[in-house]
Amino acid sequence: MNEIAFGRPQEADVVDRLRQANIPFLSLVAEDGGAVVGHILFTPAIVDGGGRHVGQRVAGMGLAPLAVVPDRQRQGIGSSLARRGLELLRADGCPFVIVLGHPEYYQRFGFECASLHRLTCQWQGVPDEAFMVLAFDPEAMRGVSGVARYRDEFDAAV
Fold this sequence. Notes:
Layout: H1 2-6, H2 10-20, E1 26-32, E2 35-49, E3 57-68, H3 77-91, E4 96-100, H4 103-106, E5 112-113, E6 119-121, E7 131-135, H5 138-141, E8 146-149
Parallel strand pairs: 3-4, 6-8
Antiparallel strand pairs: 1-2, 2-3, 2-8, 4-7, 5-7
């Protein structure tokens, strides 16, 4: 499904590697008539702490990928998956979620430029506006700064 949605195999390969990594994750799918038409995945992410957290790692989640098959895009499927996933993570006490994506799309869920929170992306050359964070718990994130990192499995897809 991810390969069809993105038109390339990298995202599907990352999902397969993450599933094999035996890590906690949140994966949601949208189905229509028994066929999967959308998928969202949240996996552990960390901030290598700066500010008052120098030398500490602050754990949250990373959103990637969010995929909807092409003929079902722009019908609210991706938005429904994102809202539900974020709702579950917030209820579970997750302090933040990072995402690398289209600002116009992700801002509707409350994401904002990570640089506003003194967070930078692990990968060089990522446009500032494309790397975003949603801080669920402002108190837990107070004074947190540094490099935000997805799991190593994502490196091959970037």
